[in-house]
Amino acid sequence: MFDSFNISGSGMTTNRLWLDTISNNIANMNTSGRPGDPETVPYQRQIPIFAQVLQRNLDNAPGTDRKQEGVTITKIVEDQNEPRLVYNPSHPHADETGYVAYPNINITNEMANMMAATRAYEANATTLKAAKDIATAALQLGRG
Predict the structure, then answer these.
(1) Tens of pLDDT, residues 36-71
(2) What are the residues facing 73 on neighbouring strands?
(3) Is 132 inside any structural domain?
(4) How far is CA 50 from the centre of its chain?
(5) Is residue 39 part of a domain?
(6) Cβ contacts of residue 81 below 8 Å, gap of 6+?
(7) Helix locations, the chain, DSSP H
(8) What does the pLDDT look like over 26-39, one tens digit per residue?
(9) What is the gyration radius of the CA atoms in the chain, in angstroms?
(10) Nearest 5°: CA angle at 64, between 61 and 69?
């Protein structure tokens, strides 16, 4: 019974972190840098790497069988795509040819990811509520 609480909780935590990452990408999509200049590199899109968690911790002592299941983000990597170049010779970060480097972030993709993360969070919240309702109903049966 409690496994479903742990799994849904880990999913909600992971989806919240995914939403935070997406929000950070959107907030930084207009940061700029000078093309080819390592000192003014524009923001790089962050991508979370998800992994399933299937662990069983067994000790020799009775009653210490613990199981952890769910999902986690193992790391957040930077997108290695080339920055988007925009011609703006009056910008302070413009190079000698007049181009400014911006992060290669597509707002449409970020919004689609945001909707997916939100739906996944809602699904985990619904599952958690259903598990809680089942546990409550089982306790009510035990009282009867």
Answers:
(1) 888 888 999 999 999 988 765 555 555 555 556 888
(2) 50
(3) yes
(4) 8
(5) no
(6) 45, 104
(7) 2-27, 107-143
(8) 999 999 999 888 88
(9) 23
(10) 145
Hey, what are 135's tokens? 């546990």
Q: What is the pTM of this model?
A: 0.81
In a domain, 125, yes or no: yes
Strand partners, 86: 100
Structure tokens at 129: 């509520």
Secondary structure of residue 139 in the 3-state scheme: helix
**Which tokens hold the place of 78?**
């930077």
Backbone angles phi, psi at 33, to 5 degrees: -155, 170
The domain total for the chain is 1
Q: Is residue 113 part of a domain?
A: yes
Phi-psi category of 36—alpha, beta or left, where left has phi over 0 and alpha has psi -120 to 50? left
Domain membership of residue 136 as a residue range = 2-29+46-80+105-143
Please check whether residue 129 is in contact with residue 76, taking contact to mean a CB–CB distance below 8 angstroms: no
Length of the chain in terms of residues written: 144
